[in-house]
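Why do we care about 3D structure at all? Because function follows from shape, and shape follows, mostly, from sequence. That is the central idea of this module. The next example makes it concrete: a single protein chain, its amino acid sequence, and then its structure expressed as tokens.
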Amino acid sequence: MKKLVSAVTASSFLLLAACSSDDTANSSKETKEKLVISTWGFNEDFFRNEIYAPFEEENNVEIVLDTGNNADRLNKVRQGNSDIDVIFLSDYYAQQGIEDDLFETIDRSKLSNLDNIYEAAKAPLGEDYGPAYTIAQFGIAYNPDEVAKPITSWKDLWSEDLKGKITIPSITSTTGPMIVDAASLVSGEQAFNEDKAFEQLKALMPSVVKEYGQTSEYVNMFAQGEIAAGPIMEMYFADLQEAVPNAEFVTPAEGGYAVMNTMNVVKDTDQKEISEKFINYILGKEAQEKSAKNKVDSPVNTQVELTEEEAEGLTYGEDVIASLHTLDMKFINDNLKDWIDRWNRELVQ
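And the structure:
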């Protein structure tokens, strides 16, 4: 009888221990912090497995994604009914968020990896706000079989040979203001001149088949032979090459433009500390190297070393980054409404 009682007691102990273990595991799951990241949603499997998972494991946090385009995601934060902690935006949209007071100021003492990123990426919109984790180049792509001579300059877009053969970004797109600035450069002005820029754009419009608002429109027109050339971000050039293998991308002689994707902490989040830790992690060598070698994002961390093959299609290297024009996004946003009105009035047929 004693043996039976002992056996029952032992079984009960094991059962209680197992329940206790399950409760502890469940409790651990329940107490995991959630970090809500607002981002574009492309390459989601890569980011979840290669970038987010190690951070989640190391910090006992669950990353939840809120995806969409720049404008929609920024508007969600504006409306004040989101639980977003960190938001990824192009500099053009991030500046709007800053002006609307939607972001927390960044504690740069928490971002140790800032010491290892390109100067241009450290504070593209001011010291109080987030760094850029990648820099894309805005230049020109073209089909060499469809043009009379190689394109080497922004001026070449105005060539008679390209009449009815190009596309340009819409003024309301991320890179729209860059084509306005490029037009000013083509006019010969050293400093930006709005009137000269619009004169040049008016002269360019007979060559434009269609303005594109999304890169997919550009890719479709290029693949179908509707256009032979046009300005585009280098990060999308691989899509063009899939359609036209001998397509070429060029940094214009006057210089390409830097398009910076930034990270910011959303105002009034209760996750500021882990949000800044996440931003610092994304700037680190390991995360930057994985993204670069998988052709997802161009690295801003100077410790990332790539072979020529690995760097193909990426905006990579200190000399390349230093050669790019960077626009004053506050100036852009202050003037954009007038530019849109003028574009629609003077350029749209």
